[in-house]
Design goal:
The protein is α+β, with helices and mostly antiparallel strands. Helix content is 33%, strand content 14%. Strands 1-2-4-3 form a four-stranded mixed β-sheet, with helices on one face. It is extended, with a radius of gyration of 26 Å. 9% of the residues are buried. The mean pLDDT is 82.
């Protein structure tokens, strides 16, 4: 009777199958997340001009080697922590009356430090459709840009800000 209650041991082949399955899963993760991709500076294709030279001078990050962070982990962490600890940059809201009576607004955020090239640089930010300067992803980006010496001008799409009334019968369109 005791012999019936004992469970037989699995053959050693089963341990090899488990090891192979774990190795296969790890291989797929490494391939899907591009964890073995070599890092290199981006290939820039441009026509040599005064504007191109100015952009390369004022944005040295364009010519540096990009070492990607673990983006998927960052996305998960931001999903949990970013909503709680989003920055709230301070800016001035500007109002412009358009010919059809619409009131366009944009927010202007001054730099918090000197830009790396020592010049006054303004970045114009146009959020995605129906977004504005009060969205968390825009606030986070503006805060980062201000700390790196950029003045930021953020367009607020017509009808997107909850506390700004529409003054014309239209909302934002790219047309």
């Amino acid at each position: 009777m005791d012999a019936m209650l004992e469970t037989p041991e699995l053959p050693a082949v089963f341990d090899g199958v488990k090891l192979a399955a774990v190795a296969a899963v790890l291989y797929v993760i490494v391939r899907c997340l591009n964890l073995k991709s070599p890092t290199a500076p981006p290939e820039l294709i441009y026509q040599d001009s005064a504007l191109a030279r100015f952009l390369l001078k004022s944005c040295p990050l364009l010519t540096k080697e990009y070492i990607p962070p673990l983006g998927h982990i960052q996305t998960a962490l931001y999903g949990k922590m970013g909503r709680v600890r989003s920055p709230h940059p301070y800016g001035l809201r500007k109002y412009l009356t358009m010919p059809d009576g619409a009131t366009a607004t944009f927010d202007l955020f001054e730099p918090q430090s000197e830009h790396c090239i020592g010049e006054d640089v303004t970045m114009v930010i146009c959020p995605g459709i129906a977004n504005h300067s009060e969205k968390q992803y825009i606030r986070t980006f503006v805060d980062y840009a201000q700390k790196n010496g950029y003045r930021c001008a953020v367009l607020n799409h017509l009808g997107a800000l909850p506390n700004i009334e529409l003054t014309s019968p239209r909302m934002f369109t790219y047309g």
